[in-house]
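Methods — Computational structure assignment.
A single polypeptide chain was analysed. Its primary sequence is given first, followed by the predicted tertiary structure written as structure tokens.
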Amino acid sequence: MTDQRRALIATLDDDEIARILGMKKSATIAFVDARGFPRLLPCWFYWDGACFYATSDETKFHVRALRANDRASFCVEHERYVEGRYRGNRQVKGVGRVEIFPDADGEWLARIVTKYLGAASLPRALDSRRVVLKLAPERLTAHGGDVDWPEAGD
């Protein structure tokens, strides 16, 4: 049996990166907890062209962990198509240090909610304990691939 699998990996251009980061896709934030274990957090986010932003309640576990160790990364994956045994995906990943600051007026929460849901009024009770998680990537990588797996017996 011959391996007819094809994987075409390519670096994404700036327009494709901006398109993916503008989609209504969740990101995954990776960080390390106090015991040294890796943790993952799915979240809604906002990309302003230079920095990645998410918000959370200041009392959450991941916020406490990021205050103790600000090193983190994020990944946004877009599955371009799935058709039978053909798959195509694109990924944008960034790594850096997270800056945490209050979202006092709910500005960042509003930007994120508007991205995913359109204009919406936000309850003020949510805003009082919200903080912003800002990551200005030291490194940003973006690539994608198309894979064609042969049927069994091919």
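Note: Residues 6-148 form a domain with the Pnp Oxidase; Chain A fold (CATH 2.30.110.10).
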